[in-house]
Amino acid sequence: MKTEHLNDWLALAANFGVILGIGFLVYELQQANTIAQGEARDRNSAAIFDISQAIAENERLVALTVKLRQATPELSETEHELARRLAAMYVSQWGKLVIQNSTGLLPESSLSFGQAGIAATFDQYPGLAPHLAEYLSYRGVTAGTTNPVWRVVWTEISARGDAG
């Protein structure tokens, strides 16, 4: 009888240990997810800063962005090429949001902040819209996308009449 009683207590202690271990594992996973989300936000902020810094450090890009503040700027062939490269930089940044969103590493608040940043980019540089449309089309991202990031980009492009 004492052996049975001892076995019952040992089984109870073992089960408690398993439950405690599972609880600890859940806590560790939540902590790792929180860290990953924070790192994703930091990378997004750094990428936005990098684009701004690249523009600020290059006189040709500064001159181009001044022109791109107009809806239909007159651009030289070199400026068109620079605008294509600038569009690629923005699409690359927004693509990171797409990946983070699809993997669950982008909290809803960060997604909303990123979407607002996309709209602000179009508000600031409406002349960039046709270059973004061209680059996205080239990359196979169509206006019919259901992705929440690309959908905002295409909505902004369409609002400027450049959904070509």
Strand content: under 5%
Count of alpha and pi helical runs: 6
Spans of at least 5 consecutive residues whose pLDDT stays below 50 are none
Give me the Rg, rounded: 25 Å
- The helix content is over 70%
Number of strands: 0
What letter string, H or E per element, gives the SSE order?
HHHHHH
Distance between the termini: 83 Å
Largest sheet: none
Secondary structural class: mainly alpha
Could you report the average pLDDT, rounded to the nearest whole number? 88
- What sort of overall outline do the alpha carbons produce when their principal axes are compared? elongated
Description of the molecule:
With about 160 residues, the protein is an all-alpha fold. The chain has six helices and no strands. It has helices at about 1-55, 60-65, 75-100, 110-125, 130-140, 150-160. The protein is elongated, with a radius of gyration of 25 Å. It starts with a helix and ends in a 5-residue tail after the last helix.
In terms of topology, how is this protein built?
Blueprint: H1 2-56, H2 59-67, H3 77-102, H4 108-124, H5 129-138, H6 148-159
Give the tags.
about 160 residues; mainly alpha
Brief sketch in words of this structure:
The chain is mainly α and 164 residues long.
